[in-house]
Amino acid sequence: MKTCLVVDDSRVIRTVARKIVEELGFAVVEAEDGVVALEKSREALPDAVLLDWNMPNMDGMEYMKALRALPGGEAVRIVFCTTENDMRHIQEALAEGADEYIMKPFDAEIVKTKFDLLGLTE
Amino acid sequence: MKLEDFDYLSRLLKERSGLVVTKDKVYLLETRLTPVARRHGLKDLDELVQTLRANRSDKLLIDVTEAMTTNESLFFRDTRPFDLFKASVLPGLMQARAGQRKLRIWSAACSSGQEPYSLAILLKENQAQLSGWRFDIVATDLSKEIVAKAKSGLYTQFEVQRGLPIQLLVKYFKQTGDKWQIDAGLRSMVQYGEFNLLTHPRSLGQFDVIFCRNVLIYFDQPTKRQVLDGLADVLTKDGVLYLGGAETVLGVTERFKPIPGLRGLYQRSDGEAAVKAA
Fold first, then answer.
1. Domain count across chain B
2. Do A116 and B79 touch (CB under 8 A)?
């Protein structure tokens, strides 16, 4: 089973995202910030990451750069999922190595679309 | 809803748009038409039907039809039809039209424009191989309101996240307030118009490709046949018809037959599509 790391400092968002991603057939691991996400990524690289941008301790951008530097980290599919809903942030995320980008608020259809586009679903 | 009101509305919708509303879809009439009733200062559906009976030429009639026939759409809907368009349909038809270097495409129920704009994006993304070619994309819908929305190229944040890869959003849209607008170059590639599929499409000219997806499912058998026969009249002899995944010509009309190996794509029975599975 493929794994998805859901990284968001909001427990509510993590719960909603977990349910959506599980329905897409993933085993889900949660992290509340970039530091915890990086620890979990070192333990086992996920296939996909659904990643918030603004979080305490380590934000999504810092985490993504650190993840990409891990052995095998460049193959992980990273989908930002954030309230940073402007063109400048989207372009910055893509330039730094994000594969897809979701602007909050989101729903199951949007997450499915993005995972489909990345070939993560059957 | 009273039975006679349901009968009246379902007859009216069938007559104006071909839409078949069966009794198990009463909830659709209620959820979609109650807001229309309120907008017109009417208390409920009873009053709406009374008003329609009194004056059928009213704007209310247009709003009722539009509310019932407008459906959500998404960019690159179902993905595969567009993959086939790029891999099989375009190469085949371009070979067949090498002399004219012109193709006409019709999005026959374009809704808010995602289908024709997806085609425009696909053509733009492959422009290096298409130089010297002219592509006419004609996009029509029954609803005046939805055609105006399609023409504006303005979409909500939700709409641009359905089916559209983020790289294409960045490349072809600009943010205007809380909306996203597709760029003027792509907008100019699509000619929009109102068109009711219950009328014969000969006034639109001949097409090499017709997209008529997820519309026939709302029609009864005789209406499906009437619409498909009209499409056969305006499709070139070697052209391609796209239907939705849940739609077929089998048992409806003899004017079309499936293209082997290309699910959802049909050719005229009296011709052969210039298209083969890749």
1. 2
2. yes
